[in-house]
Amino acid sequence: MTEIAAALRRPWRQAEAVKAAAEAGAYAKKLLAMAEEAFVCGPITRAEVLVGPGRTDRLAVAATALATLVLDDVALGTDAPARLAALRARTNFKLPDCCVLLAAEDAAATQIATFDDRLARAAAKLGFG
């Protein structure tokens, strides 16, 4: 959403704002369509979500807000290091993104909820709708 706000401050970039808003709307529709499925989250992803609030001394508030979401935890197995390394080698993604993919694999998920286009494309190639 920051792209929308930034573009609106510069009138010559309004087309970019419209595009960003349309993309945000598409993501929102996708998330709503997924709402009937269970959402899962691995521990590394949960930690990544809390990094920003931790930097601004709002970790407890964010952790409480995160706890109100209906997220099933997916534990990383003892084979996680090797599987994460293989995912990282195959996708060239950073480790936190590989953790999302690994959690989805372990949960037998059909889709991945993400606002990251690159991760969404890779997830689709790996069989996640």
Summarize the structure.
With 129 residues, the protein is mostly helical. The chain contains seven helices and two strands, in the order H-H-E-H-H-E-H-H-H.
Core attributes:
mainly alpha, disordered N terminus, two-stranded parallel ribbon, 129 residues
Structure description:
It is a single chain. A two-stranded parallel sheet has the order 1-2. The protein is built from seven helices and two strands, in the order ααβααβααα. Helix content is 65%, strand content 5%. Helix 1 packs antiparallel against helix 2, helix 3 runs antiparallel to helix 4 and helix 5 crosses helix 6. It is globular, with a radius of gyration of 17 Å. With 129 residues, the chain is mainly alpha-helical. The longest helix has 21 residues.
Strands, count: 2
Which runs of at least 5 residues are low in confidence (pLDDT < 50)? 1-14
Termini gap: 24 Å
Strand order in space, largest sheet: 1-2
Characterize the largest beta sheet: strand count, sense, and whether it forms a barrel: 2 strands, parallel
* Principal-axis shape: globular
> Strand-and-helix sequence, N→C?
HHEHHEHHH
Proportion of strand residues: under 5%
Structural class: mainly alpha
